[in-house]
Amino acid sequence: MSNIQLAVNLRRLRTDHNYTQTQVGKKLNISRQAYSNYETGKRIPDLDMLIRIADIYQVTLEQLLTQTCTRRGVINETSGPYFTGRLRDRDDVIYLSQEEIDIITRYRSAGEDDRRITRKILGMQDPG
Questions:
Q1: How far is Cα 23 from Cα 57, in angstroms, rounded to an integer?
Q2: How far apart are CA 43 and CA 34, in angstroms?
Q3: With 0-12 CB in 10 A as exposed, 13-18 as middle and 19+ as buried, what is 118?
């Protein structure tokens, strides 16, 4: 099971710090591809690697794994206007704002033409 929050945090923190995947890989003594696999959720870093990553970005392990991290600090989604969601196929937990819930709800009731336009705007591939 991947950790969506970890993958999102790794990418956000790296870009917020203006690092490339190659630069972070060098700091961790791993390849760019290995770090890319962490950002995409294809692989989960072991505990030692997680500690090293948290040190680079100056966050705690708990923050790195469970909270939304930015260069400016941690966004505490569990105490704000966010709602817990669960991805069915992976059983991962994500947090959605009311706006995101409204968008998903409207998307589900939209016609196929509107869905296709939405996917195009968001840079998503059409299914099928």
A1: 13
A2: 8
A3: middle
